[in-house]
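Q: What structure does this chain adopt?
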Amino acid sequence: MGEEVVVAVIAVICACAIYALAAARVVKQYERGVVFRLGRLREGIRGPGFTLIVPFVDRLSKVNMQIVTMPVPAQDGITRDNVTVRVDAVIYFKVVDAAEALIRVEDYRFAVSQMAQTSLRSIIGKSELDDLLSNREKLNQGLELMIDSPSVGWGVQIDRVEIKDVSLPETMKRSMARQAEANRERRARVINADAELQASKKLSEAARQMAGQPAALQLRLLQTVVAVAAEKNSTLVLPFPVELLRFLERATPAEAAQAVQAVSGAVQAAPTPTPEAKENEKEKEKKQEQEQGQESQGREKQTV
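A:
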């Protein structure tokens, strides 16, 4: 009889141990437990730590409450200005209500992924290419609102959505490169034109200053001659008097004709050489040639 009692006690203890093992559950710190008893949701969410359920009657589902980083596959689309692009993004979300995430939607991860893809295509069609390339913050906010609106009923909260990369066709890349090059060339020409305008203003001021002081123009001309001579080149600079040009500009046609006649008369009045003077000059040239020939012969003898 005593042995039967001992066996019964041991059997009860084993049954209790098996029941405890079947009922014991551990929920991690970043998880929450949702209990379904015979298919119905039990009130109260099980927090992290050790918890018990009714074996074969309750079912405990664990939901991860961490922020999930989900890449959105690249989507092909046409922008509002008719440019074909390929855009990919990344979405950050987390579960805020574990019970709603299990009851309202079959698979909240797949649902969020599909919603992100459709929203991304919609954003591409509503935006222009320049907005996709430079104004991404505004597009990220719009994309976040489009995804967050239906996901509120799923117990999911969208933290952030970021557009990662925008792929363009090669022809569009070349067109944009040519546009940037043309823009830089335009800016260079505008800067050069502004420099020419400023230089012309300074030169006009210098011209007015020199008009009051004629000697300043001569000094400037001498400085230019010195600058050209310092370069050790074969350029010959002949200063031309500016006063002569001014005189010709101010003179009337009659005065100019008189000046030309005066110059021609001075040339005709110049004394012309006589035939005897010409012969004397020829004899002097012959003597100089003879002397030079004798000197050259003497040098050759010395070298020999």
